Amino acid sequence: MRSDIMKVIVLNTTEELAAAAAARGAELLRKAVEEKGSARLLLSTGASQLGTLKELVSLPVDWGKVEMFHLDEYVGLPESHGASFRRYLKERFVSKVPLKKAHFVNWEGSIAQNMKALSEEISSAPLDVGFIGIGENAHIAFNDPPADFDTEEPFLLVTLDDACRRQQVGEGWFASPEDVPGQAITASVRQILKCGAILSCVPFKVKAEAVRKTLESPVDPHVPASILKTHPDVTLYLDRESASLAGESLLAAFR
Questions:
Q1: Based on CB atoms within 10 Å of each CB, which residue in 165, 168, 184, 224 is the most buried?
Q2: Are 243 and 251 in contact (CB under 8 A)?
Q3: Residues in Cβ contact with 254 at an 8 Å cutoff, skipping those fewer than 6 apart
Q4: For residue 154, is the peptide bond before it cis, meaning its omega torsion is within 30 degrees of 0?
Q5: Other CB atoms closer than 10 Å to residue 219's CB: what's the count?
Q6: CA angle, residues 88, 186, 231, in degrees to nearest 5
Q7: Hey, is 186 helix, strand or coil?
Q8: What is the pLDDT of residues 220-235, one digit of tens each?
């Protein structure tokens, strides 16, 4: 399905993908700081984002003028657990750069009150950049298929599907699907689409089928990432492995 909006960039290696996406993200953050005096960043996590974050923290950005928002988190998983996304971001990003402020998804206490407070914070000003991965089931954040494309609520309490839970095991975060929490708090699809620019970093062979579906499918809640094709400024960064099932003619439609 041809897109006149989404741009797809295929790099030879995961490392090249990470460097290219991070460079573009830093450029956009610097531009926002220059034009507005501050920038707001939405960050995803997971194995696919490790290289990009490592590159991003090494780049020249006035981090003291950047606010970071956290995309999603498991419900019931303590921050001390190795799979905690709060822990992931604190260790790999927040501890590396002197941010203006970091806003985390927090389930402790009242989930409803925490979601309300975070929703108010994220809605108080535009988001400039979002680093948004795509899951093996084509989810974005924890919006598993069929995703809710309509709700305007910034954050949702969702139930994770079996494919999503198997992905977390495959990436090494949990020993078995039964160990993966059944629920998560996630930024909604509509909230993700409010980012001024979306940089979607999707390396690895295990993502190849999700990439193919995302590019080939019409906009469909059963392929949640397909909705990214409606965004006015989205770039999909692939390596050769994740692009391997898309085919040259399909990829050419997005260049």
A1: 224
A2: yes
A3: 2, 3, 6, 7, 8, 215, 236
A4: no
A5: 13
A6: 105
A7: strand
A8: 999 999 999 999 999 9
